[in-house]
Please model this.
Amino acid sequence: MVDTADAEFISYLEAENTAASEWFAPHEPTIDAIFSEIKSRVRETDMSTPVKNGPWWYVARSVEGLNYPIHHRGPTADTATEQVVIDENIEAEGHDYFDLGAFDATMDHRYLAWSTDTDGDERYALQVRDLDTGDRVGEIIPDVSNAGTAWSADGHWLFYVTPDDQERPCRVWRHRMGTSPADDVCVHDETDERFFVGIGTTRSDRWIIIHAGSKTSAEVRLVATTTPEASPVVVMARRDDIEYSVDDWGDRFVITTNDGAADFRVLTAPHDAELRGLIDPSTWSELIAHVPGRRLTGIEPFRDHLLVHEWADAQPRLRVLFPDGSERTIEIGAEPHDIDLSANPEWDTDSVRFVTQSLATPLALFDEHVVTGERTLLRRIPTPNVDLDNYRSTRLWAPSTDGVRVPIDVVHHVDTPLDGTAPGVLYGYGSYEASLPPWFSVARLSLLDRGHVWALAHPRGGGELGRQWYLDGKLENKQHTFDDMLACSEHLAGGVIDRARLAIRGGSAGGLLVGACMTQRPELFASVVAEVPFVDIVNSMSDPSLPLTVTEWEEWGDPRSEPFATLMAAYSPYDNVRAVDYPALYVTAGLNDPRVSVHEPAKFVARLRSIGTGTAPIVMRTEMGAGHGGPSGRYEAWRDEARTLAFLLATT
Model:
């Protein structure tokens, strides 16, 4: 099953797809209805709000009947559609899958570096387009990671990243315009298999940042955009369990680090031409102090202010910080929500553009003056044929097995009571310190309108309540993640959702989450949706030849030795299938998935069919031309989601 070119295995997956189609056939009217509902709630021909970047205004446009956006630019906001930069629909012609990776213009906006993946295997083809003529410049560079690009100040040099055989972005290359890629120079080769490499340019356009990071430590190198042929300079040598990132704030650098600060703090350091001051830690001073439980996740420097990203009380938050130390928080209310920066490419600006959304309110785009707080609503994503007053969201807290309170965000139709009579779906992830803010979904409304309650769990292993929340749900503490999800399930089934009609859903590491919950407490759930699930964890983490295995040991442990051999075997879904009745199960996979190989969900389903004793349906569907993210076109993605929702409706 590891060999995706094996004819017998392909036939096996195709047989599973045929069986899945047969199971879904009686539910096609529901799938069609939900697909039509999703389409009816989307303005299919639409345009984003223009964004100023240098002398141009950039905008993206969607057109009814077309799967992908069209990217434009113009000299003013009113003429932003004057020039087509990239039409993704044209580039996607002839491909079942398409993803646009890099989209990076030179500082004079003459050239655009852009990359595409047409298989879902996350290996991109990188090329440069002359934006004055629309012609390609030079050769296409194949097998590039989607790990960032960076231009020199004069636009003569382009930096990019390539992966190794395990799909790990690890080598940074410098390409001179007008030369063959065969002559490109490797400026950094990351040989430590735990580390991923990513690159980018500061908003000030003065520095190229090469960031090498494992799950627990980091190392940053800098190259001035004016001297691209110089050797990268290391900011601070890597140390075990010390993470940091660097950005430029005009006359100083800003360093975000967990050195002496579990939930991170921000330091500043002066810089000179040789970067001597940055390398010497004695010159660093504290700008933002550590606050336990308030996880500082990033900073965005502008000429006269910083934007600070953080999580506090399981809510994302944005703060504005000024050079004199004064600050203010961008307030958007107490409802469980998301807030994040939108496109803010300009270095010299006195406003910030950000977006907000919740489970019950669609994404809204605002401009706000950073000093006065004067706020302008630029756009709210249109939701035709939707009465937003019909939906309510709230936050609940569930006590876990050890007494820790776990947050749950809940959304429902106003006519659906939270009294234990309605069916419901609980979604979760809980790994990699990934914090999941509430998000709005027009597709989800099809569940809510049919009387379902939808909930988002925030179990340990995520980062919503600080670094300790993450540490308490990884490695030897991983069972806490499953305990928390089960506790949220019990809490909902204890009077919020009908206990007999509770479903859980998760993808990737969230697929491990729902798989573990399903095998530990099969009687608790009516239905499970596991999307590209990481369910054969012991075998995968024991094989360093598989993509990404070595980099994952710091998250899960290495089961080739104790204590992780015993710990992981105790919760691995594949290894814990028993002869019991399991809930209805829908599993998805991608043939070209480089993150969770298709053999994992395929083995899990085969074992359930062999050992499980129940009669509930087990349905597996593999995208034969896509990868980890499923189908790429918006219409295919909508139908895919309609299929999943139809399964949940039929099984709860």
User: Anything to note?
Assistant: The CA atoms of residues 58 and 73 lie 4 Å apart. The radius of gyration is 25 Å. Residues 302-382 form one domain. The mean pLDDT is 96.
